[in-house]
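for the writeup, i need someone to sanity check this before i put it in the appendix. the sequnce is what the collaborator sent (i think, or maybe the updated version? ugh). structure was predicted straight from it, no edits. if anything looks off just tell me and ill rerun, i have time this weekend
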Amino acid sequence: MSTPQNRLTPASVRQDAICMCARGQACSSFAPGHAVHLIQARLVSTTPGEWLDAIVTTVDAADGTLVLHTLDGRVLSLWNGSGAADTVTAGAPVAYHERYHTLAVGRRLFNALAL
C-alpha cells in the first residue's frame, strides 16, 4: 500500500516561507530590503554614476525604515531587514543606487527596498 502524497501548491509554499531576518538571524533572501547578492554588489560597482548622495533624516531601528533627503531635494523612504537602520544615525551621509536598490553606508552595502 502506498502512502498518499501531500501536494503543496507553489502559492502555499511561498506563504509559509519567511526570511531568517524576521527571526533575528542573518537574511536568507536576496529580495529588495534583505541581503546583498554578490552580483548586485558587482553591478553597483560598475555603475558609479548612478549613485544618489543623500543625508539620513529619520531612522527607526525598530521597524528597519530610513528616510533620506537627496542633495537634489528628493525624499526617499527605505526599508532594510538586515540592519541598515542599526548602522546609521540621523544626519549621516549615505548613497543610494536606485536601479539596483542598494544603500551604501560608508563602505558597507545594504539591499534597500524603496517604500
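Residues 57 and 90 are 5 Å apart (CA to CA). Confidence is low (pLDDT under 50) at residues 10-17.
thx in advance!!
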